[in-house]
Amino acid sequence: MRRLLLLVSGTAVAIVVVVAIRTHANPPGHHPPGKPSPTVRVALPPPSAARHAYHSGVATGAPARTDYGAVQVRVTVTHGRIVNVAALRLPHGNQMDVQLSKPAARVLESRVISAQSARVDMVSGATYTSEGYLRSVQSALDRL
Prior knowledge:
It is a single chain. The protein contains three helices and six strands; from the N terminus they run αβββββαβα. The strands form two sheets. Strands 2, 3, 4 and 5 form a four-stranded antiparallel sheet that branches. It has a two-stranded antiparallel ribbon with strand order 1-6. It has a domain at 53-143: Sufe protein. Chain: A, CATH 3.90.1010.20. With 144 residues, it is of the alpha+beta class. It starts with a helix and ends with a helix.
């Protein structure tokens, strides 16, 4: 009976350790390299009938702090339309951060320009970077 109890307890401890190590090895926002990031749908209020019209100019958004580093963008508006969003700062603490944040920034730039708004779907696998990126975009748009 005592051996059975030790066996069961040892197995439970081993499972907990394996799960903890595996979870730590794949930080939030991780997806295997080479696979496209699926999209996360976010519930947003319905868009208003009027399209956003911004003042022409260039504005730098406030740095948005994330669990993996700061994200900051510069937005360019011409004739009331968003024409460019440039990432100035992205998480880069390690190679995984770089592999996730750069492609996510390209996808988000395209979505923001298409939607003419910071209210776009986030990139799955780069949730923290997406949240920071979109907060910084909105900050820049608020300045225009």
